Amino acid sequence: MSESMTQWARYCLALLVGVMAESASAVECDFTSPAERALEKMFSHKDVSFAGTVLFERAGNRQFITVSWPDAEGQGAMRRMNASVNPPIERWPSPVKSPERICDVLRMYSPALGAERVVAGRLTQQLSLRPKDPLRLAHRFDLDAETGMALAMATAGTDGQVLERFEYAHIQFGDIATETAFERPDETYSRGRAVIPGFFLMSEDPVNGVFVVSDGLATASIFVEPLLAGAPPGEGAVIEGATLTYTRGVTGGEGRLLISVLGEIPVVTARMLADAVRTPGVAD
Predict the structure, then answer these.
(1) pLDDT of 120 higher than 90
(2) What number of CA atoms fall less than 13 Å from residue 96's CA on the CB side?
(3) pLDDT value at position 174?
(4) Domain annotation covers residue 186
(5) Could you read off the pLDDT of 148-191 as tens digits, one per residue?
(6) Residues 209 and 242 grouped into a single domain
(7) What residue ranges in the chain does DSSP mark as E strands?
(8) Whole-prediction pTM value?
(9) What confidence score (pLDDT) does residue 101 get?
(10) 3-state helix/strand/coil string of 104-146
């Protein structure tokens, strides 16, 4: 490893120890209201196999995606039908089920039930999650009355404008999946050190400068790397639907660094996450 890369690796290791030392305390909660119980059911619904077609819209683009779950490894499969001829199969992991995750969501979002409506020929009830601070986006789900699965979702910005949405056009449920039907991968809800209000570390690779944070619902990835020679410091942001890509170049005693944040979060949150991975010796 070159001297500059070694210095950068030392920086990444130090920033986690020095800046993110606060521990995310364990959270306990009761699911008492109808809205809280609906949220619990959405995160904890039974493993029912399904296959269907989803309409996904964001940034003025529309895609039809076929999805199914589970395969022999306990993962889901999807194909983006508008992307190419004979689109490849992409895999997605089954969601982690954890009461602690539900409690984290309730800490940062206020749930409310809305009207019933029919989605993909099935009865659903609306569940809204309103953020308790400006560091999060708002979400609205239409939950299947029988399984609790979200058959539609919309994500809105701080101004209330819908940024992206998905909705099943068709879905067919199968039998409840059993452990003998597939091999379920290890599922853990790894809840680490607190970073900024409501967000905590989910995983980290400090040597390579890669960190993943979450508030239980929203997730963001943070990347720290050397800033290319000649590249000016400063910041920039690109928003596509609900996904924000934020970059900031910084210079200081630890050298020239590029901090990138990618996730379904507002710009103010990305700025705070970038601040959280800077030592006092680094200045704009």
Answers:
(1) yes
(2) 14
(3) 87
(4) no
(5) 999 999 999 988 899 999 999 999 998 655 444 444 544 567 78
(6) yes
(7) 48-58, 61-69, 75-80, 90-93, 109-119, 122-131, 138-144, 150-156, 162-176, 194-196, 199-205, 210-214, 219-226, 234-240, 243-252, 255-263, 282-283
(8) 0.84
(9) 87
(10) HHHHHEEEEEEEEEEECCEEEEEEEEEECCCCCCEEEEEEECC
Q: Give me the CATH number covering residue 277.
A: 3.30.200.100
In a domain, 144, yes or no: yes
Model confidence at 83: pLDDT above 50: yes
216-249 burial by CB neighbour count: b if 16+ within 10 A, else e? bbbebebbbebbeeeeeeeeeeeeebbbbebbbb
Region label for 103, one of left (φ > 0), alpha (ψ between -120 and 50) or beta (otherwise): alpha
What would the two tokens of residue 52 be?
């269907």
How confident is the model over 8-50, as pLDDT tens digits? 555 554 454 434 444 445 556 888 999 999 999 998 766 688 9
> Residue 96 belongs to what domain range?
34-176
φ and ψ at residue 62, rounded to 5 degrees: -125, 135
Backbone φ and ψ for 153, nearest 5 degrees, come out as -150, 145
Residue 146 shares a structural domain with residue 39: yes
Question: Which CATH number does the domain housing residue 66 bear?
Answer: 2.50.20.10
